[in-house]
Every structure is written in structure tokens, then in C-alpha cells.
Design brief:
Layout: H1 4-32, H2 35-45, H3 50-70, H4 74-93, H5 106-121, H6 128-133
Helix pairs in contact: 1-3, 1-5, 2-3, 3-4, 4-5
Organism: Corynebacterium maris DSM 45190
Subcellular location: Cell membrane
Main location: membrane
Length: about 140
């Protein structure tokens, strides 16, 4: 299993799955639930500057997810999204138990672990970053 093609395929799969999940969350915040609803949720959760935080979060999720899926600026994007999810863990999920059904820490911990894998191992060769780095 320690073959470059297997590692690259696994990183591609991980990046695309995470990217699509972030895009879906950002799309929801911008276009389905809307920024006003997101601002209200953030305010209820005690997120500082809820309106600004809603705009920043929705944009970071939408654009960051796309960058992850494409494998462009991958390490930087994964690091920034990790910080975003850590903030969500702190402001929203702590104190709600473990399981995601109760709003607990389960989901954000899995996402943080996956993002850290991308920060550590990079985007792989099946990415725009990988193409640009080839000699």
C-alpha cells in the first residue's frame, strides 16, 4: 500500500469528498438558508460578530471547498479550513456531547483529522498543485 499511485488516489478521494462537503455547506449558507438565517444561528450560538462571521464562513466554505477539490493552494486552504472548523467546534459543538445527532463534536473532529492529513501529506500528484510542481 506504500505506492505513490495509491497515496495519490487516496489524497484525491479525500480532497474531493471534503471539498464537496465544504461547497455544500457554503452553498447552503449563501443560497439556501441564506446569510440572514446563518447570521441568526451564529448570533444564537454566541459567535463573535455574527454577520461578518457568517459572510466569512460561507465564503471560506464555498471557495475553500472548490480549492480543495481542485487541489489548488491545497495545504494553505486545508490549514485555513482547519482553523474555521476548530472555531466551529469551540463555539457550536463543545458541550453538546459526542454524537453529531445531538450537535456534538463527532463531525468536526473527523473533518479536522481529515484536513490535518491533507496539511501533512499535501495534495498528491492528482491535483493542480501536483501538476505545477512536476519537473
Amino acid at each position: 500500500m506504500d505506492r505513490p499511485v495509491v497515496r495519490d488516489a487516496a489524497l484525491l478521494f479525500l480532497r474531493v469528498v471534503l471539498g464537496v462537503a465544504f461547497i455544500a455547506h457554503g452553498w447552503d449558507r449563501w443560497f439556501l438558508s441564506g446569510i440572514v438565517e446563518t447570521t441568526g444561528q451564529f448570533s444564537a450560538w454566541g459567535v463573535p460578530q455574527p454577520r461578518l462571521s457568517a459572510y466569512l464562513t460561507a465564503t471560506a466554505e464555498l471557495l475553500g471547498g472548490a480549492l480543495l477539490a481542485l487541489g489548488l493552494l491545497t495545504t494553505l486552504t486545508a490549514g485555513a479550513l482547519t482553523l474555521l472548523v476548530v472555531a466551529a467546534l469551540y463555539f457550536v459543538h463543545l458541550g453538546n456531547g459526542f454524537f453529531v445527532a445531538q450537535g456534538g463534536v463527532e463531525y468536526p473532529l473527523v473533518v479536522i483529522a481529515a484536513l490535518v492529513m491533507i496539511v501533512v501529506f499535501g495534495s498528491g500528484r492528482a491535483s493542480i498543485d501536483g501538476v505545477l510542481q512536476r519537473d
